[in-house]
## 1
Amino acid sequence: MVFAGQGDARRSMALLWRAGSPAQGRPGPKPGLSVDEILDAAVAIADAQGMAALSMRAVGERLGRTAMALYTYVPSKSELVDLMYDRVLAELPVSYELGAGWRVAVTSWAGEMWAFYLRHPWVLQVSQARPVLGPNEYVTLETVLRILRETGLTAGALRRLVGVLFHFVRAAAQTVAESRQAPAATGMSDEEWWYARSAVLEEVAPDFAERFPTLTWLDGEGAYQSEDESVPYLEQEAKETFAAGLAVLLDGIEAAVNRAGLRALP
Amino acid sequence: MVFAGQGDARRSMALLWRAGSPAQGRPGPKPGLSVDEILDAAVAIADAQGMAALSMRAVGERLGRTAMALYTYVPSKSELVDLMYDRVLAELPVSYELGAGWRVAVTSWAGEMWAFYLRHPWVLQVSQARPVLGPNEYVTLETVLRILRETGLTAGALRRLVGVLFHFVRAAAQTVAESRQAPAATGMSDEEWWYARSAVLEEVAPDFAERFPTLTWLDGEGAYQSEDESVPYLEQEAKETFAAGLAVLLDGIEAAVNRAGLRALP
DNA sequence: AAAGTTAGTTTATGCCGTAAGGAGTGGCAA
DNA sequence: TTGCCACTCCTTACGGCATAAACTAACTTT
C-alpha cells in the first residue's frame, strides 16, 4: 500500500491555496496549460455529463492534450476533483443580510446551497469523509456560522447545527440531482419507466393492497398535483419536501433557542 | 443508445419479487449457483471492502466461478446492486411499538436505520433516483409510514416527512460511513492526516484567524471532548450531530402537529 | 555549446463491465 | 437409444479507466 506522506500534504495544500512558486525564469518549455484551465474544462464536463463522464482522457481531449499531460499540473484524479470542488464553492455568496433575523438568512442560505448543488450535481459525489481544507471550503463554513451565531446558541450546539443543515440540504438536493440523471442514464423517461414497472408490479404482487395497507391508503389520498407542468412531477415534489423539511428543521432550532432563552431568564 | 424495454422491466421485477419460474424439470445442467448465493457473496464483499471493491470478477472468484458465470443469474451489475439493496433491507424491523407515542417510535426507527447504514455503508451509494420497487423497499416505507400516520397529519405532509426523515438519516450516516473508509483508503489515520495538513495550513494561510474569525472563535470555544477513547473523535461527534439533529427535526414535526391540532379545535 | 529541467507524448500494465462464441450437461421427444 | 436443444459455465476479446515509465523536444542557466 502506498502511504501519503508529508510531502503530499504540502503539494495538495499549495495547489488548493495557490501557493505554488511562480513560473518565471524556469527552464524547460513554457506551460501550455494552467491548473485553472484544467479545472474549468473538468467542471464543464462534470456539469454537463456528470461525474461518471469525468475522465482524465476526457479533460485532456477537451484541452487538445492527452490524459497524461494533465499529470504535470495535478498529481492525480482525486486531487483534481478536490480542486474542482473548492473552485466551484467560490460561486457561493459570502455573506447574508442579518437584519431580518437568522431564520430568514438561513432560509436564503439554504436556497443558495440548493441551487448550487443542482448547478453542480457532481459535488454531491465528492467524499465528505475528510474536509478538503481549501480556502473556499473555509469561507463556506464561515458564512453559515456567521448566520447561526446570531441564534446565541452555544458553540457545541452550533457545531452540530452546521452539520445537520449541510446534511439536510445535500440530501434533499441529491434526490433531485439523481432523478435528473436517471432519464439520461437509462434512456427512458420517468413516465415510460413507471408505466413499464407498475404494469408488472400488479402481476408480480397481486396482493399489494393487503401487504401494504398504509402505502395504499397514502396513494389513494389525492396524489400530488403539479401547477407547473414543465417541471417533472418528482422534482416538484422534492422541492416542496425541501422547503417543508427546512421549515421543520428551523422550527426545531427555534425551539432550542427559546429553551435556551427561557432558561436564561431570572 | 440502448433502450430498456418492457421485457427488461419484467425480468427485473421477477427477480426482485422472486417470481421466476421454478427450475424443476428444465433441460441443461443443474444450476451450480443461485441468485441468493450470489447476493450473499456480493454483500459480503461490499460490506467488507466497500462498493469500489465490488466487481463481477470479485464476486465470481469468491464463489469459485468466473465473472461471466454470474450473468446467467443476473442481467447486469446494476441489477445485481438493486437486488443486493432489496435483500439487505430485509434485516430491518418491520414494526414498532406505538404505545409510547410516535416520537419514541420514530426515534428508535431512526436508530435502526442509522445502524443499518453503518452495517452496509455501500447502500448509501445506491442511487435514489428511482425506487428499486423491490418488496423490502415497500416494507420499509410501509413501516415508517405506519408510525408517522399516528401524528394525524395529512397525506401530503406525511409524504414530505418521510422524505425528510430518510434524507436526514442517510446524510448523517454517510458522514460516518465515509470517515470510516477514509483511513483505509488513504492509508493514513485521522490523526496523521490532520497533523500533516494543519502544519501546512499555517504556512499557506498565515492570516487564517483574520480571514475566518467565526471559525477561529468556534475552534477556541472548547473543542469536543470524547468520553469513550476507543471511538474516533469524528465519529463520536457525528453520532451526537445525528441525535441532536433528529431531536430538532422531531421538535419541528411536533410543532406542525400542534398547529394542525389547534386549527381543528372549534 | 553543454547541462539540466520541464512539458508533453507514446507505450504499457492491470483493472473494469460485458459481448460473442464454444464446450459440456441433462431432460425430453422421436 | 438417439438426437435435439435449452441451459450452465468457460475462454477470449473489446473498449474503457487511472497511471507508471521511458522518451522527445523546448527552454534556461552554466
## 2
Amino acid sequence: MPAQSNGGSHPATRRAKRPTLRDVAALAGVSIATASKALNGRGAVHPDTRDRVLVAAEEVAFTPNRLARNLLSGRSGTIGLLTNDLIGRFSIPILMGAEDASGTGEMSVLLCDARGDAIREAHQLKTLLSRRVDGLIVVGSDTDPRPSVGEKIPVPVVYAYAPSTSPEDCSLVPDNIGGGRQVTQHLLDIGRTRIAHITGPADFLAAADRAQGVAEALGAAGLPLVGDRPLYGAWTEAWGRTAADTILDRFPDTDAIVCGSDQVARGVLDALHERDLDIPGDVAVTGFDNWDVFATGSRPRLTTVDMDLELLGRLAAERLIRAIDQPLDAGITTLPCRVVVRESTAG
Amino acid sequence: MPAQSNGGSHPATRRAKRPTLRDVAALAGVSIATASKALNGRGAVHPDTRDRVLVAAEEVAFTPNRLARNLLSGRSGTIGLLTNDLIGRFSIPILMGAEDASGTGEMSVLLCDARGDAIREAHQLKTLLSRRVDGLIVVGSDTDPRPSVGEKIPVPVVYAYAPSTSPEDCSLVPDNIGGGRQVTQHLLDIGRTRIAHITGPADFLAAADRAQGVAEALGAAGLPLVGDRPLYGAWTEAWGRTAADTILDRFPDTDAIVCGSDQVARGVLDALHERDLDIPGDVAVTGFDNWDVFATGSRPRLTTVDMDLELLGRLAAERLIRAIDQPLDAGITTLPCRVVVRESTAG
DNA sequence: AAACATTCCGAAAAGGTTTTCCTTAGGCTA
DNA sequence: TAGCCTAAGGAAAACCTTTTCGGAATGTTT
C-alpha cells in the first residue's frame, strides 16, 4: 500500500509542516510579538506568560526559522569557506580551526571546493554571495600567492595559507622561512655541521622559503650547505630516497638532512636504513608539516616543523568575524612555526 | 585619518547596502514583479524590457538574496553535513562527493564537526535544523554502527560510512567483508597459499569485517589462515612491524600478508625489508584504504583495497537530494570495494 | 466599428521573525 | 476621586523575493 501523507511513521512525519511562532503564540494564548519576546528574553513579559510560551514551544517542538530572522537582520550567520584542495593536507586543519572559532557562537561554515578551477571558483563565489555569507575565508593549496578573489566583494575576505597577491587583502600564512631557520638551528644546537637540504619543487614558494630559512641559519653560523645548494625535486618519498642517495654518494660525511616535507623525510629515512646508517647517530633527519601519520609512524619518529594550521584557521575565522563589524586590517600576517623534536634528531 | 563610511576604497564599499530587486526595477523603470520575471526568465516579458532589466542588474551588480527566496519557498537549498572526524581520513572523500553532487545544482553544504561528542552533536543538529537544512548527511569516523541522530528529525537523513543502529534509517557503508574477500582472492589468484592477516583492533567492526572476508575467501579455497587467527592490534605502522616479525618468526614460509590498512601494510613492508625479503617474490603484501600517500609512496607500491568513498559520498548526497521530494528508502546499502593492483603483489 | 484575443506589465500577498511604538489595565500618589 | 505612572501585551511594519491574478494596451477578426 502506498505511504499515507499523515501517518505517525517515520517518513510521514517528515512532511508535516514545521511549527511557526504563530503556532506557539496561539497555543500559549498570546500574540506572536509576545511569544518572540518570551523566547528571546527581550522586552517586558510577565513570568507566568513567559512560562506558558516556553511550555507551548516545547510542546510543538518549535525551532525558530533562522531564514526569517536572517532576512530581517540582513545577516546569514554564515561564513563561506572557499578551498582549493579539500583532498590536500592543508585545508582540513584550517577548516577545523575555522569551524571551531565560528561554531561556538552563532556562525556556521558553508563549504565550497573550487578544485583549483577559476571558473568554478567564480561560480562558487557567486553562490556564496547570493546566500549572503557574512564573510569569506579563502584557503589555498600551497603558499604561493594567489589572485584576489575580486575587489568588489561586499563582505570581508581573509586568505589563509595562500596569501592574496593584492596587498589590500588580509592574508594569514605560516612562516616557512622561520620554520626552515628554526629546524636548522635545532640541528646546529645538537652539534651538526654538515647539513644538507632536500625539498620539493623549486617553483613552490613553500620550498623556496624553507630553503631560504635553512640558508639563513647556516649563514649565521658561518657554515655552508652540503652540496652548496638545496636538492629540489618533488614532495614525495621517492624523491627523498633518490636525493638522499645522491647526497650520501657525494658527501658521505653528511651528518644531518633537513627535509622540505615529512614525506620527503620518510624517503630519506628509507635510504639511510638501506645503508645501515644510524639515525640520528650517523645522520639526523628532520621533516616539515608534522603530518602525524608520517611523522610518528616512522622509525625513528621524525623531528619536524609544525605550522599550527589549526591555529591559523582559527585566527583567520576570528579575524573574519571581527571584520564583520569593524574594518579589516589589510596585509599579510605570518604565523610562527614550531619545531617538534622527536627521536630522529634526539638520540 | 579615520576611515570614511563612503569612500571608494576597499573596506568602505563593503559597508554599502547591497542592491535589491527594487533598485534594479527602479533603474530599469519597471515593477519589481517584472524585474523578477525578467531575471528568472519566467512569465511573459518583452525582450526589450528584459534587456533593460538585465542591464540594470548588471549595472548595480545585483545578487539575488537567497535568504528571501528560501524563506518564501520554505527550503534553504542547503544540506547539513555532520561529521565526527574531520581530521580523519574518511570524512573528506565523502565530503567531496557530497559537495560534488550538491554543488552542481542549487545545493550547498553546511559543515559541522561534532568531534565525536554527543552533546556537541545535538547542538549542531539543532543549529542545522534551525537553519532549515533540506537534509542531513551523518558521517561516522569508523564503520561501527552509531545511534540514530533522532527519530523526530523533520528532514531526511542519510548515514554514510558508519551506519545507523536503527533499521528505519538509511545508511550507506563500504563492503568491508567483500573487500577482504576480494583482496584475498587476488592473492589466491597469483598462487599464494600461506596467507596471514594483520589488522587493527578487534573491536573495530571494520577490522572484524575485513577479517571475515579474508576468512571466507580462504575457506572457499580450502586453505587455513597462517597462524589460524588474524593478528589484531592497532591501525599503525608500528603494529605492522611488530606483527610481521611475529608472523615471520613463527611461520617463515608465509608467502602473503593481507593487512587491514595501508598503514599497517607499510609497517609490514618495513619489517620485510629489514629481513631482506623480496616483495612480492618472497612475500606479497596488500593494504586497505588506498590512501594515496601511503600506498604509492612505498617501495614497492601497495596493492590495496579502495572503498571508493567519494562515490559513497556522492551517492549519499544524491539519495538525500532525491529524498527531499520522495520518501527515503530505509536500510543499509553496502557499496562494493575494488582491488587496486600494484607492485607489492604483481611482480 | 465593435467584439475579442493576445501580449505585457503591475499590484499585492505570502513566507516567519524581530522590533518599534502604542494601547490597556492596574496601582499609586495627592 | 482625579491624575499619573508602570508594567504587560499587541498591532503592524520591515526584511526581499516570487507568484498569482487582474488590468491595460495593442492587434485581429467579423
